[in-house]
Write a structure and sequence with these properties.
96 residues; mainly alpha; 5 helices
Length: 96
């Protein structure tokens, strides 16, 4: 079986090429931490941030009709409706 992990020659070379684009766990968490504790963004909702800076979203990301379709699709895929049913909530309460 051909692997692409760092222990193979091929995997090692791939890792060397992409290494400059990878982030550490701390770097990856930086924006999430900033958004959760910074007073600068307190009350800001529905915005897109990269490296702790607000960025404009793509045009299709602002399409309200597409947003609604995506919401409906994700509700179907996750079967979230069952979590909202009274019986399911009661069952969860009993299991606590």
């Amino acid at each position: 079986m051909l692997g692409v992990d760092r222990s193979t020659g091929f995997g090692s070379r791939i890792h060397q090429v992409i290494q400059p684009m990878l982030r550490t766990a701390a770097e990856g968490a930086e924006t999430a931490v900033y958004l959760s504790v910074s007073r600068e963004v307190h009350g800001v909702h529905g915005k897109y941030f990269i490296d702790s800076f607000e960025e404009e979203t793509a045009l299709h990301a602002r399409d309200k009709e597409l947003q609604e379709k995506m919401w409906e699709w994700s509700m179907e895929q996750t079967n979230i409706e069952r979590l909202l049913e009274k019986e399911w909530v009661e069952k969860l309460e009993r299991e606590k």
